[in-house]
Amino acid sequence: MSQKFSFRLHATDGRARTGVISTPRGEIRTPAFMPVGTAGTVKAMLPESVRATGADILLGNTYHLMLRPTAERIARLGGLHRFMNWDRPVLTDSGGFQVMSLSDLRKLTEEGVRFKSHIDGSEHHLTPERSMEIQRLLGSDIVMCFDECPALPAPVETVAASMRLSMRWAARSREAFGDRPGHALFGIMQGGVTQELRAESASKLREIGFDGYAIGGLAVGEGQEAMFGVLDYAPGLLPEDRPRYLMGVGKPDDIVGAVARGIDMMDCVLPSRSGRTGQAWTRAGQVNIKNARHADDPRPLDEDCTCPACRNYSRAYLHHVFRAGEIISSMLLTWHNLHYFQELMAGLRAAIAGGRLADFTADFHARRAAGDIAPL
Predict the structure, then answer these.
(1) Are residues 92 and 241 in the same domain?
(2) How open is the CA angle 335-101-68, to the nearest 5 degrees?
(3) Total domain count for the chain?
(4) What are the tens digits of pLDDT across the range 129-174?
(5) Residue 133 lies in a domain
(6) How many other CB atoms are found less than 10 A from the CB of residue 266?
(7) How far apart are CA 46 and CA 30, in angstroms?
(8) Is 93 a catalytic residue?
(9) Host domain of residue 148
(10) Full-model pTM
């Protein structure tokens, strides 16, 4: 591993693991959920508020930051941490996901991807080498290698060709990353839902050698059953002494299932995006605060939650400010959602350390099954 970057396992329970990733900017308790700060901000949140929820690390987006305000400008202004006032670790994705999600704006070749900006139509060339350069300029603590990810379902031949291209790009990313003490480079496993392709990808990544390993190409349309089917074997194909990162996941039940299968890190826009659309995640499941049933409800969103939204405001108030289009609605609901996700991770870490993950998981599903019933 890179100097001053390390991973220590503290306990296991079945395939689930809890430990600590150490970086020069602080420790990351695992399993960890990373809030997404796509453009240098977690929407509707101050950085200190994000930290107050329990987050140890944020995710930034290479593609969006390279377009606006540009990586070069951020570097001139002291790097992404100083720019966004976040002094904890930052992981940046490589831009590879946009190869899939913005497919109508790009041209893919062996060399890399030519994008047309979704902002102004300007053309950009993103390659493994350029992705490493951008992430270096940003000052990312954890850098992701450049990859391509096809949407699922897709023909196995398409998935195989994409995976092998990603592995060639992974080798180029490793070479371009070079020796950067205190910074880590993660490889990304691809292969869709085909075990043989996943095994081939993992073997190639291990041959190249990375500080951590991600499982990519899931939560892209295949459904939870298929995703869990891959996670039943994929983490075991990766080195035990390196962090395992499941990209783009997910809902609370996705997280619990992934952790039980050996995942150490996750990220998703869901908590903040849901908060902006009037949806709250609670121990009893999802609450749509826009619904009329909440208009006269004096209860908090979650009786057991200590976030500012639950501690200081009623469902009736949250319903009102959402319906009125007030900015405080996005702020409070996003804070609550991020707080809940971090409490879920803390609960998982404690359960694994205490050897009681099965009981924790059973209680998690039972409370969600009971649902959120308004009083008569």
Answers:
(1) yes
(2) 65
(3) 2
(4) 999 999 999 999 999 999 998 888 899 999 999 999 999 999 999 9
(5) yes
(6) 23
(7) 23
(8) yes
(9) 6-268
(10) 0.96
- Residue 72, classed as helix, strand or coil, is helix
- In the chain, the percentage of residues whose pLDDT exceeds 70 is 96
267 carries an active-site annotation: yes
pLDDT under 70: residue ranges of the chain? 1-3, 98-104, 373-376
> Same structural domain for residues 195 and 334?
no
Residue 34 covered by a domain: yes
Same domain, 241 and 315: no
Q: Do 250 and 268 meet the contact criterion of CB atoms below 8 Å apart?
A: yes
In a domain, 259, yes or no: yes
Catalytic residue, candidates 211, 267, 297, 302: 267
Q: What's the pLDDT tens digit per position in 31-74?
A: 999 999 999 999 999 999 999 999 999 999 999 999 999 999 99
- Which of 234, 268, 302 represents a domain boundary (last residue)? 268
Q: Of these residues, 93, 141, 254, 302, which one is catalytic?
A: 93
For 341, phi then psi, to 5°, come to -60, -40
Residues 158 and 232 in one domain: yes
Residues with Cβ within 8 Å of 3's Cβ and at least 6 positions away in sequence, in order, are: 181, 182
